[in-house]
Design goal:
The complex is a heterotrimer of chains A (281), B (159) and C (267). Chain A contains ten helices and ten strands. Chain A has 281 residues and is of the alpha/beta class. In chain A, strands 6-7-8-3-9-10 form a six-stranded mixed sheet, with helices on both faces. In chain A, a hairpin with a 2-residue loop joins strand 4 and strand 5. In chain A, helix 6 (188-205) packs parallel to helix 7 (216-222). The longest helix of chain A is centred in the last third of the chain and has 18 residues, at 188-205. Chain C has helices at 2-45, 47-57, 62-84, 93-131, 134-140, 145-184, 188-198, 201-228, 234-264. Chain C is globular and about 65 Å long. The chains are: A alpha/beta (281), B alpha/beta (159), C mainly alpha (267).
Chain lengths: 281, 159, 267
């Protein structure tokens, strides 16, 4: 982790964001709009959190940044260049500069832990096996799993799987690291470890981190800025954690405070209870 | 990245396949014999080649000495022309005869060569002129009926 | 009657939609097949990947193929004996078994067993990889999963199938030998000599090999396609696995008819 940065990195004070999402709308099919005219900017070298309830398009946003789906409207830009599946060469070049941590790890089940982390190195570099071995062990050491290098994926627990996936995501020292729900389903210790890792990695390597989550306390503890998305796929608020905590917007208050009822209703739409039970008023 | 043992096992697998192929080709089919030996060509003309097929054996005294390579019709004489490849080691006299015989009662047909008595041998590319066509069942039956009818006709005439 | 008319229109609309859906799926699968071919040369250059697949597909099917070959050889010899003994032609037992195995049973039964064992394994593997987002993860690491995962498996299946079919036929003939010569008492010499005389290397063995190569392409392609297009849920993978066996088996049997007509129509 103590490697020097490549000269292509701009200094942290540079105002041009690494990722620009410019008035993007997207839906998997015509009937459901997941994202509705959203605009976001992710500054270099910072940890930015994307918060919101389930189904508000957070994970979809990550996939759009990685170019998995084409947007219906608007533009996505990675370091100034458009993200566009039509130009496969450019898309693959962009993807080599990012690493994504999937919610459940998405490790390759037919390879060992070591081979999983070594995968990007073997595919994209021509480094000799001895160097690859050193790099893999260092990456595993960064996530605290150097001793597990020889295990098969089936032998590894859920929390361990996510850390191995993190080691794999940073194997090529990417400029952009995306985390899809990294805290979901972890015990308090593992959650603390993960949050700690995200922040330390970001600061040590100068990378840009995007954390998609609905765990407000953990995110606020480590992020520099946060975006809050609503159920309709719109940006409700953005700012530093302090700004968001001080916000008077009812949607923001409900989400951050964890209140059961507010702009997001508690009850699923239904006729009045008295009517359904057949009671007369 | 690939284990040594996997490579070895795949090698074994392919080897098994090759062994199976060799076994089938040599022991279970007719590969043995001519494919490597040199041959020379002869041809023979028949009025009726019957059910003879290309790659049918050419036998002399029951021993396979060659294979039929081509069967065509001569447009001028309307005879069937059978081309054969005979192993180099076997030379037949110029007046040898070729017959189309059947192996067994209902088996495949083959060309039988009977050597003649001439001192000179058939040269490569020569044509065998003494031939006997295949037995056609319908002609045989027709002949039988004709003979029977002739016999009873004679008997009737003699009365 | 008004409801009758509505029912008919609805049925026709459903039929039209279903046909269009099938056509679209067929076209989609054709593109998938072209993709497999496109990425095969690149996969060949990374031969350790292909070798691993030949091992997983071929070696792991050896046991069932050999056992089935032996069983089929035994049964064929017995059944053909009962058929031939009425014509006093039991000496041709070896020939009959050999022709049946080389021309038909070897390639076809091997293909059906392959679809059942290796085909379902491939479909389930690809389907689970899809469900576990492994394929997307690979895409995001700028590695095309079609080149890295699908093409090596395709080549592995194409190479394994003819080898397995040859082993099936050989073991079958040996099994028939055991039953015919050792149990029934057919003359050993006649068993082999009549066979050697009448079985043609190119026509019977060669065509059988061509058949098994075609079947290899079909079975592997169907298995990979069903896995790749499966719903990324446990139920979806299970449904895809069943579909894979059924479609591959039907395709093999249909293709067998066409190939047999092409290869063996002229005696």
């Amino acid at each position: 982790m103590g490697q020097s940065r490549a000269p292509s990195f701009r200094p942290m004070s540079d105002p041009q964001p690494l990722i620009e999402i410019d008035r993007v709308s997207f839906g998997y099919d015509a009937s459901r709009t997941i994202l509705d005219d959203v605009s976001l900017r992710f500054a270099r070298g910072k940890v930015t959190a994307i918060l919101g309830g389930s189904g508000c398009g957070k994970t979809t946003l990550l996939r759009l940044i990685a170019g998995v789906h084409p947007v219906s409207q608007g533009r996505v830009r990675f370091d100034g260049e458009p993200v566009d599946a039509a130009n496969r060469e450019r898309l693959y070049r962009q993807r080599r500069r990012l690493g994504m941590l999937f919610q459940f790890g998405a490790l390759f089940t037919d390879l060992s832990v070591f081979d999983n982390v070594a995968f990007p190195l073997r595919e994209h570099t021509r480094l000799p096996e001895s160097m690859i071995r050193d790099i893999v062990l260092m990456k595993l050491d960064a996530v605290g799993l150097r001793g597990a290098a020889a295990l098969r994926i089936a032998q590894v627990s859920g929390g361990m799987a996510r850390r191995i996936a993190l080691a794999r995501a940073i194997a090529l020292d990417p400029e952009l690291i995306m985390y899809d729900e990294p805290f979901t389903g972890l015990d308090p210790i593992a959650t603390g470890v993960t949050a700690n890792l995200i922040r330390r990695l970001n600061d040590a390597t100068g990378a840009t981190s995007l954390v998609v989550s609905h765990d407000v306390p953990e995110c606020f503890a480590i992020c520099d800025r946060a975006y809050l998305l609503s159920g309709g796929g719109r940006v409700v608020a953005h700012g530093t954690p302090e700004e968001l905590r001080a916000s008077t917007d009812p949607e923001v208050r409900q989400f951050i405070g964890g209140e059961p009822d507010g702009p997001v209703r508690f009850h699923y739409p239904a006729p009045p209870l008295a009517q359904q039970l057949g009671l007369r008023a | 990245m690939i284990k040594r043992s996997t490579e070895t096992l795949v090698g074994l697998f392919v080897l098994l396949g090759l062994a199976a192929l060799l076994f089938l080709a040599l022991k279970a089919a007719n590969l043995t014999g001519f494919s490597t030996e040199s041959t020379y060509a002869l041809s023979a003309r028949f009025d009726n080649i019957g059910g003879l097929k290309v790659r049918a054996p050419v036998r002399s005294a029951g021993v396979t000495v060659g294979r039929v390579t081509a069967i065509t019709l001569d447009p001028k004489t309307f005879q069937g022309v059978v081309g054969m490849d005979i192993r180099q080691g076997f030379r037949f006299p110029k007046d040898s005869s070729a017959k189309i015989l059947t192996s067994g009662l209902l088996g495949d047909q083959y060309v039988g060569l009977e050597p003649g008595g001439d001192e000179a041998d058939l040269v490569p590319g020569a044509t065998i002129t003494q031939t006997q066509s295949a037995l056609v069942l319908e002609n045989l039956i027709g002949q039988l009926i004709f003979n029977k009818a002739a016999e009873s006709g004679d008997a009737g005439a003699r009365k | 009657m008004p409801c009758h008319g509505v029912g008919m229109t609805q049925a026709l609309a459903w039929l039209g939609r279903a046909t269009l859906d099938r056509l679209r799926a067929l076209g989609h699968s054709a593109f998938f097949f072209v993709d497999l071919l496109r990425f095969s040369p690149a996969a060949l250059r990374r031969w350790p990947l292909v070798l691993t697949q030949i091992h997983l597909i071929g070696n792991h099917s050896l046991l069932i193929i050999a056992a089935s070959g032996l069983a089929v050889g035994f049964v064929l010899a017995l059944q053909m004996y009962y058929a031939l003994v009425t014509y006093g032609a039991t000496e041709s037992l070896g020939l009959v078994v050999n022709l049946a195995l080389l021309r038909e049973l070897g390639p076809v039964v091997t293909a059906l067993l392959f679809a059942g064992r290796a085909g379902t394994s491939l479909t389930a593997e690809i389907g689970l990889m899809k469900a576990g987002e492994q394929l997307v993860a690979m895409e995001l690491m700028a590695v095309d999963p079609r080149a890295r995962v699908l093409a090596p498996r395709f080549l592995g299946g194409i190479v394994s199938m003819p080898v397995l079919a040859l082993i099936f036929s050989s073991v079958g003939i040996l099994g028939a030998y055991v039953v015919a010569v050792l149990l029934i008492g057919v003359d050993a010499g006649n068993f082999w000599s009549i066979m050697q005389d009448r079985v043609d290397v190119w026509r019977d063995l060669g065509n059988g090999i061509v058949k098994s190569m075609v079947f290899g392409v079909i079975c592997t392609f169907v298995a990979l396609y069903q896995g790749y297009e499966s719903q990324p849920t446990p139920a979806g993978v299970a449904a895809a696995t069943t579909r894979s066996v059924v479609i591959a088996s039907l395709a093999v049997l249909g293709m067998d008819f066409i190939l047999t007509a092409l290869m063996f129509s002229t005696p």
